[in-house]
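Feature request, filed as a ticket because there's no other form

It would be nice if the structure record came with a short human-readable summary line next to the tokens. Right now we just get the raw output. Example of a typical job, pasted below so the devs can see what we mean:
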Amino acid sequence: MNDTPDLNRIAVLVRDVARAELMPRFGRVGESTKADGSVVTEADVVTQRRILEALADSHPAIAQLGEEMDPAAQAAALDECAGGVWCLDPLDGTSNYAGGFPFFAVSLAWIFRGRVELGVVYDPVRDELYAARRGAGASLNGESLRVPDTPVALERSLAIIDFKRLPGALSARLTTRPPFRSQRALGSVALEWCWLAAGRGQIYLHGAQSLWDYAAGSLVLAEAGGAGCLLDALEGTCRDDLRLGKRLAVAAANAGLLAEWRRWLGAPG
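Raw output as currently delivered:
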């Protein structure tokens, strides 16, 4: 069996499961708290099971890493990279979902030889399906997706920022002396990367996101012409290694704006 994933088929799988499992439960499902303090619902678990079972049938040589798996199983899957590994967040934005806020998504990436090669992010509320393959561009609902060409200065940018996970001093600086025009906090990492790709914001900052949060969305942004950087610390250098553990993410609509944004943040450009 050919285990090279077909982007269109994977996108259809993600879309169909999200429609079947997430939307009927939206606003009608209880939540519980995991050991790390994050929220989980029945929808997370069911969606992960259905997608991973389907992928195991169609691509048995590809390992699987899902957010709702045991950390030891996640680490083992990431090490089994002969055929690559699926990296799945079955419900990115669970707190939004459980709270009735309509901003959440399913995020699925295929990692091969240490790089994200394929990414799909599906927003079932808006029926928006973002997809990307490395070197082949990004799309939104089948149409080519490119970051708008019109340059936007940092002071006129709309910023997408998650303040909760930032150092207090930086949060205070951003709120009292913001270098941007306006700011939003949306609560779904995968969609935040994709909205930047779609021109619905120009700069981005998030203090702690996991591999399953950023894998697919960061590829969508890169293939749409945007620029992103994953860091171990704000003053650090960009890292392209894929591993478990939290990473700080900084991104922008283009490389020049990203460099300006990082200079303001005090990190090397």
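Something like this underneath would help us a lot:
The two ends are 45 Å apart (CA to CA).
The mean pLDDT is 89.
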